[in-house]
Amino acid sequence: MISQRKNQLSHWLIHAWFIVFSLFCIIPFLYIISISFSTESDLAKYGYQLIPKTFTTFAYEYMIGSPKALINGYLVSITVTVLGTILSLAVTSMLAYVLSRKDFRGSNSLSFYVFFTMLFSGGLVPWYILIKKYLHIDDSLFALILPYVIMPWHVLLMKGFLSDVPLALIESAKIDGAGEWRIFYKIILPIAKPALATLALFIAFVYWNDWYLALLYIDNQDLTPLQYMLYRIMNNIQYLSTSLQTGNISIDISKMPNETARMAIAVLAAGPILLVFPFFQKHFIKGLTVGAIKG
Amino acid sequence: MEHTSHRAVRRSNKSGGFWRELSRKKGLISLAVPGLLFVTVFYYLPMFGLVLAFKDLNFTKGIWGSDWVGFNNFKFFFTSDAALQVTRNTIVLNLIFIALTNIVSIALALLLYELSRRAVKVYQTTLFFPYFLSWVTVSYVTYALLNPELGVINHILNRLGWESINWYFESKYWPSILSLAFLWKNVGYSTLIFYTGLLGIDKSYYEAAAIDGASKFQQIRNISLPLVTPLIILIVLLQVGRIFYSDFGLFYFLPADSGALYSTTDVIDTYVFRALRVSGDIGMATAAGLYQSIVGFVLVVTVNFIVRKVNKENAIF
């Protein structure tokens, strides 16, 4: 009896501890949301508050009222994420499939060729010069997509998934006269659907959250993805007003909600991932744990 | 049947076997071609650019035509104060991150293990949530907390009767700030990995221990911890292997590239980035990058060697 009560108590202590820790994880972001729904004058008077003194959607209305920069940012981010994910998923899974084929003698040396890049790289500068001076893809959507099409880590993950496919399945398809491409599309892809979903999620996450390629290669304001726009705004508050002004509607800068609008953009940029993540968490976790243990 | 005969033929004629294998598998190999092309262009071609570390780059002459300067770029980098500072910051901060994040996540994983699956799911989601934010977004969070006039932390300090702190100009606080931010973003992921490791432990150990009257604490000490130790060692070693590299976004966005903070926040990656983009010293930036790649490579190989010795199955290659 006593030990059970003691058990109960320790359970409550554990819960209490996790509740505190969960708050530690969530409250900082709640501040961002709260600020975006506050009025500028309240912020100036009281500082940042966890709950807005006066609730207003002014910052959001303001952004939606002069939406060119924001819509443009979304468009660039969505385009890059969709095109990048499709391309990367196709190329990565094809490569990983070849590396996973146990009956292919070259798979070991090819694997070494691919995974060696995880151990040694040319570093930032040669990579930068290659893309800018030799491939000439800077300041284009290509610069935001192509460098991430193959990530060795993703190949490794997919190879791990695909090495579970029984060779007998492939052999029997071959006896039926199917070519390698046909086997890949008609047999491998359908059975690897869950793995593909997980991988697609990883890739989309990389593209959506990326600011690095834009920081390095994008000067053209029309090609600014959301995350990079967010950085530019943080770096230079003027950027917000100038990028909003490029819309057709003329706006009164003195009324511009600087602080709240910044935070509203942060919420809008993080929003899609945060909305989607609870639904895909299961897939994501599966990929992470498989990757961590096999990798 | 057919398979074994092929193998026999291959053995008898090794080099011929290689080309035969290539032609026999050309359908399969063609599937890998696009991927290999991307690997070659974006990972191997830049390696040739490393010669820049020994050159004085002049774009009109091109990379190959530029003048050789021997080890001058390295000399320039290593005799500056920056080399020591960025190396120290990179290693020390990474060591703090590794220790802090792993200790906290192991503790959380052990506690999660005591709870029901449903509770685990709820807490896991909340702990995991910051992992999905980009470092840019996280920099907004730290800005909201640390803003000198409006920020939450200074507001609390004032309430308690303390002076405001000008966070973006006081370098001594930044190792702690960066560590907390790193913990905040990564604790969910790290906890999940250890929790998964715990789930792999055979339940009967605990049942037997409980029958023998072992307390929860004794079970943790004598069953859980020893059995996840191989996983802990593996993860720590992997992290140590990457100790010369840092999460660029964390070090670039959170301190808002404030020069006053470089003494504690500047790491090799941010230094190379600035040398390339701000001061435009391409030769030295390449040299610093090569230094990072080589030491990083040696570290990974050494760590792998150690892992192999400890447990061959866990070795990466």
Automatic annotation (TrEMBL), chain A:
Protein location:
Cell membrane
Membrane topology classification: Multi-pass membrane protein
GO cellular component entries: plasma membrane
Superkingdom field: Bacteria
* Keyword Cytoplasm on entry: no
Its main subcellular localisation, reduced to a broad class, is: membrane
Extract the Pfam families matched here. Answer: BPD_transp_1
Chain segments annotated as transmembrane = 12-33, 74-98, 110-129, 141-162, 183-208, 261-280
Q: Which of UniProt's keywords are assigned here? A: Cell membrane, Membrane, Transmembrane, Transmembrane helix, Transport
- Similarity remark: Belongs to the binding-protein-dependent transport system permease family.
Please name the InterPro entries in this protein's record: MetI-like, MetI-like_sf
Q: Which protein, by its recorded name, is this?
A: ABC transporter permease
Q: What Gene Ontology terms for biological process does this UniProt record contain?
A: transmembrane transport
Q: Which Gene3D superfamilies match?
A: MetI-like
Recorded hits in PROSITE patterns, A to Z, give: ABC_TM1
SUPFAM superfamilies named among the record's database cross-references = MetI-like
Domain annotation ABC transmembrane type-1: ranges: 74-280
Establish whether keyword Transmembrane is in the entry.
yes
From TrEMBL, chain B:
Q: Which UniProt keywords apply?
A: Cell membrane, Membrane, Transmembrane, Transmembrane helix, Transport
Please report the stretch or stretches of sequence annotated as the ABC transmembrane type-1 domain: 87-303
**Signal peptide (from-to):** none
Keyword check for ATP-binding: no
Q: Can you supply a Gene Ontology BP term from the record?
A: transmembrane transport
Places the protein is found: Cell membrane
| Residue runs in coiled coils | none
Concerning PROSITE patterns, the annotation shows: ABC_TM1 (PS50928)
Q: What is this protein called?
A: Sugar ABC transporter permease
Q: Which SUPFAM superfamilies does the record associate with it?
A: MetI-like
A single GO cellular-component term on record? plasma membrane
What sections of the protein cross the membrane? Answer: 28-54, 91-113, 125-146, 177-201, 222-245, 282-307
* Chief location bin: membrane
The membrane topology of this protein is: Multi-pass membrane protein
Pfam families associated with the record: BPD_transp_1
Family affiliation: Belongs to the binding-protein-dependent transport system permease family.
